[in-house]
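Standup notes
- DV: blocked on the single-chain target, sequence here:
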Amino acid sequence: MDFLKKHYEKVLLSVVLLGLAVAAALLPMKVSAIRDEISKSIPNPKPKPFNPYDLSTNQMVLERLRKPPAFSLSGGHNLFNPIRWQKRPDGEVFKVFPGKEAGPSALEFVKITPLRTIVSYDGVSGMGESLRYRIGLTREADKVAANRGKKTLPLTVGARSMGVSIREIKGSKEAPTEVVVELEGGDKASISAEKPYIKITGYMADLKYPPENNRLLKNLRVETSFALGGETYNIVAISDAEIVVSAKSSSKRTTVKFNPAP
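- DV (later): unblocked, structure below
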């Protein structure tokens, strides 16, 4: 008893510490038991899988922003390109669509015909001092229509007519095998009865004009003229690939290309 009286404070403190130790040891067990009760009382449904949002329309808008359409003031609209109307010679009014304008740019080729210079040997006439060599001359590109047909030139050696002269006779004088001729401009050629001289010296074109019901313009040559929509055009040049025309009022030139069908 004397021991308890002397040390009761220590004994009391030891009992309190022991109680705290037991409580500390039992606390995790109590917490686990309470957690189990809570988990059993609250349902735990399985979550649905996440479905991503459909962003296709947003992606399309972003793609259009990355590649904006080209801004053009030309084309099929008529805001800056109003359609023009023109009148045909018969008085009918027609609409001129872009790309099918009237005027020389609307001309289309029908045919191109090469124009030739032909020099031929057509035999001998006369005898002795009056011996003459008949030279045939055809100039299809001549500006004068009367000179385009074949002309027969009776020539002696060294004589000249219509730009053609004989330079040499090969073989006998009465029956030469070849005749060497010199042409206007200095060109020389050896011709015989079977081998004429042929050279393309120009072209003639046939055109059509769709704005006026495919009106045909035939046998057009250099320096000839024609009228389109009240304007007169002169032909400046013709080749096997194009024709160049010039407006009489403004001297503006337009080149029309020849695109034959494949």
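- Follow-up: Residues 83 and 128 are 77 Å apart (CA to CA).
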